[in-house]
Design goal:
Order of helices and strands: EHEEHEHEHHEHEHEHEHEHEHEHEHHH
Shape: globular
Number of helices: 15
Strand order of the largest sheet: 3-2-1-4-5-6-7
Distance between the termini: 11 Å
């Protein structure tokens, strides 16, 4: 088959899937939007690659808070993706992490081209916007939430197949009348690209982290997160008798919140931009405990993929997340700590973290369990088989 796989964010496991499908003999073009600021995967051609990688859309960062400009940019991206479909003569396209304006334009164009496409549904945006509209974005966004719900339902109905990342998403598609063509394939992380390394490594030495215990967060921080919790848990662990250094790898508006809160609570903070992907194992390996954040209202529509990278890195995980979230289940399976994402959870989080940090053998044991679960659950061959079956089916 000739395939176009677009992952708006440029994340690691989507391009890993594209490489696997190319390895199986398909002609695969993988595209992503360089303007979206986030951690990226291996998005350069490598020796022996038959995979074609093409960035699409603007290269300058998209201003997430400039709503009208963002909608226009994302709509134009849908048109540019349609041009990629025509240029590559793709038999089928699959879109991951694409924004709703992009999806609407793309779905309309694919109807005119009479070509099938697959929605790889990473986040149910309509539910997310509805959840946050009243609390965080104001009354003016209630109409936006309603329009986005209609639009996301419409594009789901236009897709030839839908892949969702957790069983909880199926309930939404049942309401939309699209459950019959929906398949659940949980996300994963690349086992060969993210792996355990020594706690004292080149990156930790560069950041002067070898002589201190660390809590580390690496990933995006947006509406689905409360960044102040990161500083709060570090302060609570220190107050419980274990000095720690907080390391946050992130770019965006959360930086100011983190700096101000760290200064207020006198928490040592290393705040860095997203690091090169080839150093991610060292980055994650520099954390004694890796921290995940997800707001309570996001539990049904988002699975933080950073959790999966943390498991591959073989480190204990502390999650401030809804208990019903799939990532919470994985963390519980490896005896990590999952607590509600609010300040009331800080004493329990601090007690758990202080206990683990005081015992090197326990740190090592929990880390080995994390990696073992990743090796059981994230085998690429099985995921590749399931996606290939779907893509073949919609072109038949």
């Amino acid at each position: 088959m000739r395939l176009l796989i677009h992952d708006f964010s440029g994340h690691p496991f989507q391009v890993e899937l594209s490489r696997e499908l190319a390895r199986r003999g398909h002609q695969v073009t993988h595209s992503y939007c360089p303007a979206w600021v986030s951690g990226k995967g291996r998005l350069e051609a490598e020796p022996g690659d038959t995979l074609v990688i093409e960035p699409v859309g603007p290269s300058e960062p998209i201003a997430k808070d400039a709503f009208v400009k963002r909608v226009v940019t994302e709509s134009l991206l849908g048109w540019q993706l349609l041009r990629q479909v025509r240029r590559t003569k793709a038999d089928v396209a699959m879109l991951s992490n694409a924004q709703i304006p992009t999806l609407v334009v793309f779905a309309l164009g694919m109807m005119l081209l009479r070509k099938p496409w697959v929605l790889w549904h990473q986040d149910v945006y309509a539910v997310a916007i509805k959840a946050f509209a009243g609390e965080k974005l104001g009354r003016g966004f209630r109409l936006v939430a309603a329009l986005f719900t209609i639009a996301e339902r419409w594009v789901s109905r236009r897709a030839a197949a839908v892949v969702v990342i957790a069983d909880s998403f199926v309930d939404v598609h049942r309401e939309w009348g699209t459950a019959h063509k929906t398949t659940v394939i949980p996300n994963w992380a690349p086992l060969d690209e993210i792996f355990p390394v020594d706690r004292h490594n080149a990156w930790s030495a560069e950041q002067q982290l070898d002589d201190t215990r660390t809590l580390l967060y690496s990933g995006t921080l947006g509406l689905k997160h409360n960044p102040a919790l990161l500083v709060g848990v570090a302060a609570a662990v220190r107050d419980a008798g274990t000095p720690v250094h907080l390391v946050v790898v992130n770019e965006g508006p959360a930086e100011a919140v983190l700096r101000d809160e760290a200064a207020r609570l006198d928490v040592p903070l290393t705040l860095l931009p997203f690091q090169p992907y080839e150093r991610l194992s060292e980055v994650l390996g520099s954390g004694d405990i890796l921290v995940v954040l997800l707001e309570q209202d996001a539990g049904a529509f988002s699975v933080p993929s950073k959790t999966l990278s943390y498991l591959c890195a073989g480190r204990p995980v502390l999650g401030f997340m809804p208990a019903e979230n799939l990532a919470s289940q994985l963390v519980n399976d490896v005896e990590g700590c999952v607590l509600p994402p609010n300040e009331g959870s800080l004493p329990a989080a601090a007690a758990w973290a202080a206990s683990v940090l005081a015992d090197d053998e326990e740190l090592a044991r929990l880390g080995k369990q994390s990696r073992a679960l990743a090796e059981r659950e994230f085998a690429l061959e099985g995921c590749g088989n399931r996606f290939e079956e779907i893509l073949v089916r919609v072109t038949s």
